[in-house]
Amino acid sequence: MADKTLTLVAAVLLGVHIIVSFMAIFLFRKQSQTYHEVSRIMWTLSFLVILISLCVLIVVYVRSYDKTDEAPDDTPLVNFHQQNKNLVFTSAGDKTNFVSHWLDRQFHRNFDIWVVYYGDSETDKYKENADHWERRKGSKFQNFYHMWKKYKAHLKKYKKIFVLDDDIIFSTIDINRCFEMSYLHELWLLQPTFKTNSKISHEITKQKPNSVLRYSNFVEVNTPLFDVEILHDIMEKYDPALIEDGVDFLVSYVLTQRKDYHRKKIALLDTVSCVNPHDIYKGGAREVDRVGPSSKRMEIWKKFARKHKIYFGVKDIKTYDTDGKSELV
Q1: Is 7 domain-assigned?
Q2: Residues 185 and 220 in one domain
Q3: CA distance 2 to 97
Q4: Pairwise CA distance, residues 37 & 27, whole Å
Q5: 154-176 per-position pLDDT tens digit
Q6: Distance between CA 46 and CA 52 in Å, rounded?
């Protein structure tokens, strides 16, 4: 609607330019110094009008160019039938074996599954295992952002969305339980903790014995389970230039800045754990490195954080006890 209005303004200005130009020509033909002065003023006005109209058209062009990778929110989903109120989203490559883990009890799942395939196979890999499937290069959050912009109206019909790395190892029943706990505790954001044989980037994400859950202000980027109501704020702040590094800090910052945030809205789930495989089991390299090396990804995040004044990092990560009041050490 905004672009149509700007285009209309440009058209009106061009009309004004034509009228003023004709009037200037008419007055210039008059044998009078006064008319000539008025004519020069009108020529100047005509020049300014055409300059403004060109600027408006440039703005319209730039705005339309920025949206070339997006589609309207009501883009139809072909052959997609929503079965559940929960969704598991993943961006899958050629080295994953998620089907044998997440769908080990296919007919007992309480979630739909959405796969964006970024691999190199010419076949539609994993398509038969997904409720919705698309092919697109990019990292997990880049691809999720693209789907959000393209199919927002449809995605918002879900209540919860689990955005999972394709190499995370846990079962259908474990995934079901994560969704159930998210509803039970009315959480905005949740992650299952990692088993001790996992790759651990943040100590708080390791499973804690004899614990149901711990409240926190942070979950790791590889296993976030979102309440759809808060995804809009995150996607508005997210920039597809961000690959993976720093996205979890961005999520924490956005949520903790909300006026209705309190400590019992984000949690680490200890009753359900999963395996985050070490790089050695992925052929010694991470798939995300194909999108960009770690140093580049981190530099992009730091530049983005500085530009948008996002003040959240490792030192700001906290966990709280089950009443959400006392900070855990």
Answers
A1: yes
A2: yes
A3: 45
A4: 9
A5: 999 999 999 999 999 999 999 99
A6: 10
